[in-house]
């Protein structure tokens, strides 16, 4: 869990957030033990911005991995931020039991399963 948070923290440093100044880093742990990370990438056309969690998941899926055990999200907020609704649905796509670890730079952590964060999420 510490390594996953550390990777999310490193990814946060790469965030491109000149409009909100709110940097977010995320890292996903696959069931095979691999870690993929991502950061938020904003755009001057605001709606095109992408969150860190989705960046990390799309990075993993693009690399051929889609069985996830945990997702860590790191921000500099107190209490630690939890994923937005869109990111919850994207995490939920890959399983009900994925553990979401929310952490901040101070070292506070909170862990909640995705099916608790997103009750009755959408499935086709
Ligand atoms: N953001 C994330 O990266 N993840 C979330 O779950 C919520 C929000 C980003 C989007 C935007 O770049 C900034 O945080 C402020 O909303």
Largest sheet: 5 strands, mixed
Globally, the shape reads: globular
Task: State the distance separating the first and last CA atoms.
Answer: 31 Å
- Spans of at least 5 consecutive residues whose pLDDT stays below 50 are none
What's the architecture in CATH terms?
Answer: 3-Layer(aba) Sandwich
Identify the CATH class: Alpha Beta
Task: Please tell me the total number of domains.
Answer: 1
Proportion of strand residues: 15-25%
Tell me which oligomeric state these chains represent. Answer: single chain
**What is the fourth-level CATH superfamily?**
Cytidine Deaminase, domain 2
Q: Which structural class is indicated by helix and strand composition?
A: alpha+beta
The neighbouring-strand order within the major sheet is 2-1-3-4-5
Give the helix level as a range of percent: 25-40%
- The name CATH uses for the topology is Cytidine Deaminase, domain 2
Overall mean pLDDT: 98
Q: Give a list of the ligands.
A: tetrahydrodeoxyuridine
Based on CA atoms alone, the radius of gyration comes out at 13 Å
The helix tally amounts to: 4
Please give a quick description of this structure.
The chain is an alpha+beta fold and 124 residues long. 28% of the residues lie in helices and 24% in strands. A 5-stranded mixed sheet has the order 2-1-3-4-5.
């Amino acid at each position: 869990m510490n390594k996953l948070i550390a990777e999310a923290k490193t990814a946060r440093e790469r965030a491109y957030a000149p409009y909100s100044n709110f940097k977010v880093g995320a890292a996903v742990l696959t069931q095979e033990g691999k870690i993929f990370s991502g950061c938020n990438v904003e755009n001057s056309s605001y709606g095109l911005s992408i969150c860190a969690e989705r960046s990390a998941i799309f990075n993993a899926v693009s690399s051929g991995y889609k069985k996830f055990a945990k997702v860590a999200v790191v921000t500099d907020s107190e209490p630690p931020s939890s994923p937005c609704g869109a990111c919850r649905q994207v995490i939920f796509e890959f399983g009900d039991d994925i553990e979401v670890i929310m952490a901040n730079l101070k070292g506070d952590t909170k862990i909640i399963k995705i099916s608790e964060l997103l009750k009755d999420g959408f499935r086709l």
